[in-house]
Amino acid sequence: MSNLSRWLSSRKLSSLEETLTEHEIDLDILFDLTDEDMRELGLSLGARKRLRAALEAGAGETITETELARTGGGAERRHLTTMFVDLVGSTELSAGLDPEDMRDVITSYQNTVAGVVTRYEGQVAKYMGDGVLCYFGWPRAHEDDAKRAARAGLEILEAMQVIKAPDGRDLTVRIGAATGLVVVGDLIGEGAAQEEAVVGDTPNLAARLQTLADPGRIIIADNTRQLLGADFEIVELGSFNIKGVEHPVTAWQVDAERSLTTRFEEGTPDPTLPLIGRDHELGLIIERWRRACDGEGQVVVLTGEAGIGKSRLTRAAIEEIAQGEHYRISYHCSPYHSDSSFYPVIQQLTHAMGLSETDSPTDKFEKLKTNLRHADPRIIAELLQIDLEAELGPLGLTPQQTRNQIMSETSEEVRALAREKPVLMVVEDAHWIDPSTLAMLEACLDRITGERAMLLITGRPSFVHGFGGHPIVSKLTLNRLGSEQTAAVLSRIARGKSLPPELVAEIIARTDGVPLFIEEMTKTILESGDLRETETAYELTGPLSRVTIPATLHDSLMARIDRLQPIKEVAQMAACIGRNFDRAALEKIAGVSEQTLDDALVQLEQSELVFRRGAPPDASYVFKHALVRDVAYESLLKRRRQDIHARLVEVFEAENAAPELTAYHASQAGLTEKAAEFWSKAGSQAQARPAYDEAANHLKTALIEVGGLLDEPVWRERELELLVQIAQVYIAKEGYASAEASEAFGKAMQRIAATDSAELRVAIYYGAWIAPYIGNRLYQAYETANRLVEAMSGEAELIPRLISRRMRAATLISMGRSPEALEDLKVAYDLYQQAEITDFATKFAQDPGVQIWCYMHLAMWMCGDREGALVVADRSMELARHLNHANTFCYAGLHDITLALWEGDISRARKVTEEMRQVAIEHDMSLWKLYAWIFEAVTSCMADEADGPARVDAALKDYRATGCWLWAPLFLAEQAKAQLRAGDAAGAEAAVKRGLAEAEVCGERWAIPELHRILGDISRSQGDSAAAAKAYEQAAADARAQGAVLLLARAEAAIEGL
C-alpha cells in the first residue's frame, strides 16, 4: 500500500487515488493543493469539499504524521489470530429463497459479524460469500488478541440466534480460529477487489477448523488455546489430520467465557509460584491492613508496568489477610468495558448477591433486600438495571440524582460491612476503570477514613486518579527484580534443577527483571526441546540458539509498538540499530527531517518505551525492554530489515565505527564478505587489547560467515588464517593444551593444502607441535619441529624459518640438548633481525623476539654463560614490558622465573610471579594464573615454608588436569630439596624418583642431572656415602652428556664435598 493510498483510505477518500496518482500527486505535495489545483485535476465539487476538509483536518497533524507516512514499509511480520466464520446451510437456504431475500440474509449476517469484530477492535479482512475472514492483531495489536477473537466468536454465535431467514428458519454459523506467524499488509487486487493479503498457514488452518465445528460452535487450534489461559470453558476434541498441515492438529471447542470475579480465579500464568523479591512491598500492604483493622481506613495504590507482578503481590496480600476474619469485595476492570458505567461494581454485586439470568426482576429484588446490609435495594436495583417500574413505579430521580445515590449507597454499604468485620476492597487493573466507578472510589475515600476498611488498587503507570494527595493514600510502585531474584524465579520454575549458566545469563539479559517475562520465556525454553532434563539439572542439547519471544507475550509487546502510530517506523528502524541507539545514526537512516525525528524521539520517550541519555542532538537512547525491541524488530519483513542494516553498514563504515558494530549489521544485511572482513577485524582488535572472550566470539562469527564463501580459493585460505588466529586466542586464554585450540589447529591441518603461504603453514604446524610440547611428549614434539625445520629450510620467507628454528630450540632445551638449541636460536635471532614483523599478537600469540630471548637465556645458562643469560633475561623482560602485550609479558615471565629457579634466586622469582599473577587476573588468562600458582608453591619450597611441598602437590594436580606437564620434573626437584632440608628424606626421595620417571617417559631430560644430584644429597644425609657417590657421578655424567656446564659444576662440587 502506498503512503498516499494509506492516507486516503484512512479518510474514506480512496476513490480519488486514481486521479491523484495519474497526476503524480503524492503526500509530499498533497497538502499544498489549492482549490484551483483541484479543479484542474477535474475533481467534482463534492470531492473537492471532502478533500479540502480532510486536508484542513490534517493541517493539525504534526509533520511527523505526514512525513513519517512516507517511510512506511507496508507489509509486516505479525503474530496474528485469524477467525473464519461460515454461515451454515447457505446453499440450501439460497435454493429456497428469492435472490433478493438471500441478499438481505447475507447482508444481515455480514453486518452482524462485522459489528461484533469491530467492537473487539478486530478487522474484517475479506467477505467470501457466506464466509467472513477476520484478523485480530492487525493493523493494530492488543495484548489479548486471542481472547478478543474468542469473545467475538461467542458474541457472534449469540447475536445470530435472533436473526431469522425470511421463511422463519434459524440462521447459525460455525467458527474456526488459529494463531501464528504471518506476513500481512501487502495489497492485492484493484478497486473493490483490493484487499490486504495474509501469507502463512494460520488463515488456512482457521478455515479448516471451522469445517470440524458443529453449527453454533467455535473450534480453535492449540496455539490459540494456549493464549486463552483459564478465561474460557474449553473442551479438547482430539487430534485431526488437516489438509495442508504436516502434523496432526489438536482442536479445542470454546463453550463459554468463565464469569468469575478476579483474575486469580480466572487463572494467572502460574499462581503456584511463590512470591519472590517482594517482601518489602507485601510487608507495607499488610502493615496498612493492620492499621485499617484498628479503624484507620487505608488506601494502597499499587502501580507497575504490565507483567511486573501486581496481581501476584495482590494474591499474596489476599492470602495473608485471609488468615483473619474479614469481608472482601473485588472489582475487576475490563479493557472491553472502560466506557460502561459502573461495570466492575455491577459484576461484583451480581456475583455477591447471587443473581442469575433466569431470576425474575422480583426474585432479584428479593435477593437484594436479603443480602444488602445498609444500601437501598431500589437504588442498587437501578444500578443493576433490574426493571421494577411495573411493580414499584418509577424511581422519580433524574439521571444525575440516580448516579449520586448509587455512589452514596455503595459507600454506605461498605461502612455497614466494616462495622461487622474489616473490609478489604480490591480494584484490579484500574487503568481500565470507567469514569463512574472511579468517581465512586474517590467519593468513598472520606467515608472510609475512620472505618475498618482498606482499598487496594492495582494499575499500570497510565492509571490517572485524583486521590493521590489524600492522607490515607499510600502509593507503591513495583520495580523490576534483580539478577539474584530473577535466578531464584528460574530455579522455582525449573523445580530446583539447575539451568545452564549461559542460558540463565541470556534470560536475565532479555527479561529485564519483569516476572511475567521471566516465567513465560523460561517455560518456552523448557518446552522447546533445546534442553535435556536429568535428575538434577537441565542441559543444553547443542549450542544455545536465539531465544524466541514466547507467544504468550508477543501480542502484549506488539500492542505497545502499535500504539506508537504514526512513529512506529522510527521505533522499528531504531530497533535495527539495537537495544541501544543514538540519534546521529538514526538520523542517517530515517529519511526524515531533523524536526520530524526529534518529534518522534520525544514521543517514543514519552511513551516510556525508550529512555534517553544525554541531551539532543548528542543523545543516545535505550529500549526499556529488550523484548519490546525484539518485537519491533521482528515485525519488519526480513527484506526490509536487510535494507536498513545495509544502510547502517554504510553509515558505520564511513564513520570508522567499532568493527564489531559494522560486522553485526553486515551479517544482518546478508553482506557475507563484508561481514567476514569486519568480524575478523573486530577479533584482531580484541585480541590485541587483549580481550580474549570477545576475540574468540568475533572470530567464531567470522568463521561462520566465511563458511558460506568456501567455493573461492581466497576464502579457503582466509579460513585457515582465522582457524590459526582463534587457536592463538584460546592458547592465550586457556593455555597451550586448550581443547578449542587443538580443534582449530586440527581443522587447519586437515585443510592445509588450501594455502601456499609458508608463514601460514608454519603456524598450522605450530599447532601440531604445541600440544605435545606443553604436554611433555617431547619426542613427538621434536619430530614435528624437526620436520618443519627441514621443510622450511629452502623457503625465501624469513619468518617461517625463524619460527621453525625457535620451535625446535625450545624442544631441544627441555630434552637436555641446549648446545644444539643455541645453534638454532642464533639462526632464529639473525632471521628476526632481518625480518619485518607486524601484528605479532594475532599471528604468533607472543612477540617472536621475546620468544627467542626466553629460550636463549635458558640455553646460555645451561651451557655455562651465566652472566650472559641474566643479561638476555633482563632484555627479554624489558621488551615484554615495553610491548604492553599481556600474553607476551606472561610468556617472558614464565621463562624468567624458570631461570630464577635454576639460579636459586627466590626474590627474583617471587617478584616476577606476582607481576604475572596480576596481569593474568586482569586479562582472565587461566594458564598464566595456573603458572603463577605453581611458582608461588615452588618458591614457598625454596623459602622452606612448611606447607610448600603440599602446595606443590596441589598445584601440579591442577596442572596435570589441564593437559600440561612441561617442566614438572624441575618443580619436583625444588619440592624434593625443600623436603630434604625439612628432614623428610623419604618424601624427598619419592619426589626425585617421580621426577626421574616422568623425565624418562616424557623425554624432558634437562632436569635429570639435578634430580640425580639431589638423590645423592638424600643418600649422604642418611650416611650412605657409596650411594651418594654413585648418584653424584651419574649427575655429572648426565650433565656432561647434555653440555650443561653449570649443572656439571654442581655435581662435581658435590663429589668433591663428599
UniProtKB/TrEMBL annotation:
* GO BP term, example: cyclic nucleotide biosynthetic process
Q: What's one GO-annotated cellular component?
A: cytoplasm
In this chain the SAM domain maps to 1-44
Q: Which SUPFAM superfamilies match?
A: Nucleotide cyclase, P-loop containing nucleoside triphosphate hydrolases, SAM/Pointed domain
The record's section on Pfam families has: AAA_16, Guanylate_cyc, SAM_1
Q: Which Gene Ontology molecular function entries are recorded, alphabetically?
A: adenylate cyclase activity; ATP binding
- Which PROSITE patterns does its entry note? GUANYLATE_CYCLASE_2 (PS50125), SAM_DOMAIN (PS50105)
Identify the residues that the record assigns to the Guanylate cyclase domain, covering every copy. Answer: 81-210
InterPro entries, A to Z? A/G_cyclase (IPR001054), AAA_16 (IPR041664), Nucleotide_cyclase (IPR029787), P-loop_NTPase (IPR027417), SAM (IPR001660), SAM/pointed_sf (IPR013761)
Q: Which UniProt keywords apply?
A: ATP-binding, Nucleotide-binding
- The name this protein carries in UniProt is AAA family ATPase
Where does this protein come from, organism-wise? Sulfitobacter sediminilitoris
Taxonomic lineage from the root: Bacteria, Pseudomonadati, Pseudomonadota, Alphaproteobacteria, Rhodobacterales
